């Protein structure tokens, strides 16, 4: 007899004479009530053990974390909360869990402690919920683009270029740790390395993606991205997943429309498909909010916050307008920003971004037309010669969630820009080919998948929305 998932059992139309379930014990009360979970749902099924007919040894081995199988009748549950429970006839211990040693006892653990046990934290309700939401969200990403006819392109993970020019790359080498070949002037001789040149883990699939968009029309990548971020923040990982659509014949406005439509679609999808998990996470957050002083509590509960994003357009504001707002604002009664923007051309700090989103507009914001000198080389220069057709989407509680742009399609302008920035044209000869042969207006964006999961789950640290976080000094697993 094949076992049935607990989610299915709980959704049964009626009682059943015999069911078979397997899972892990969450709690065992009064030598009688097992709360069993198998990961298919946030809900445990209550299994009522027949302790008269169960050996003392077996009863002792029903401990938190143990894997068990139960056979019995699915009956109406008298207790509050659930329609069904299992009246156990046979119980088999599949895998013991020593209660003295199992770290995930049912009590409130700090997130810090749970991070140190990333392989076990998924056994808690919160992390089970987060990981199911993450999974459904990634399916929604594919569904959105596939429905619209985008081609999914797997851009390379090992690359020879630094798309962002931010110098945050992890090097890839097959050179031996000692005996590394050197050039005459003592530098590492990458010509003798595996690929015959310097290579690194990708920081973005955009440049390769553009070349495919200029043949397939609309493409997207969704893959792991690596950045040697040298600071420890709650928004940055060294390994994260990025969603990067790229569309030929789309300008910046089309790009904003696409990003907004996409984000609303995937959030709507997950709100419908993960109602139970999100409700659980909302409850968890409300508990946390209660610990905070009134003034610091968030105004909206999680599901209301998600609905708000679905029901309201993102506010579109130019960089120049944003600077004016920031100059004329007082973030708190008499306080100033730590970092005062008094000159047009400065990059916004996250305190400014969050002020715009959370205090001023009180909704997601799309900032566009940034100064050229603070953005990457490939962005389309505006006719003013000073700004580029760039956009960042800012979300409450998160800050930047999307960075995108219309790309510079004019060969000469692009080459000028590269020269000015000291970017080697020969290195990017293949990229420049898209501007040599059949160039056209095109645009795209990059959305950090974990930042989206952060927003949807209401979590506040990016380490808590990816299975095994990679951050400075931390690659334990
Ligand atoms: P930030 O300003 O937050 O460092 P960025 O401007 O460097 O981000 P982009 O190069 O614009 O990032 O990348 C596109 C998107 O990828 C960002 O909007 C963000 O959602 C996500 N992202 C960038 N760096 C990271 C990271 N280290 N960890 C997680 N997500 C990231
Ligand atoms: Mg960055
Ligand atoms: Mg940024
Ligand atoms: Mg950016």
From TrEMBL:
UniProt feature coiled coil, ranges: 271-298
Keywords for the protein's UniProt record, in alphabetical order: Aminoacyl-tRNA synthetase, ATP-binding, Coiled coil, Cytoplasm, Ligase, Nucleotide-binding, Protein biosynthesis
Entry keyword Chaperone: no
Pfam families: tRNA-synt_2, tRNA_anti-codon
A biological process term (GO) from this entry: asparaginyl-tRNA aminoacylation
Top-level taxon of origin: Bacteria
GO molecular function: asparagine-tRNA ligase activity; ATP binding; nucleic acid binding
Domain Aminoacyl-transfer RNA synthetases class-II family profile intervals: 131-467
PROSITE patterns on file: AA_TRNA_LIGASE_II (PS50862)
Localisation: Cytoplasm
GO CC annotation: cytoplasm
Cytoplasm as UniProt keyword: yes
Assembly mode: Homodimer.
NCBIfam families, alphabetized: asnS (TIGR00457), PRK03932.1 (NF003037)
HAMAP family in UniProt: Asn_tRNA_synth
UniProt similarity note: Belongs to the class-II aminoacyl-tRNA synthetase family.
Entry protein name: Asparagine--tRNA ligase
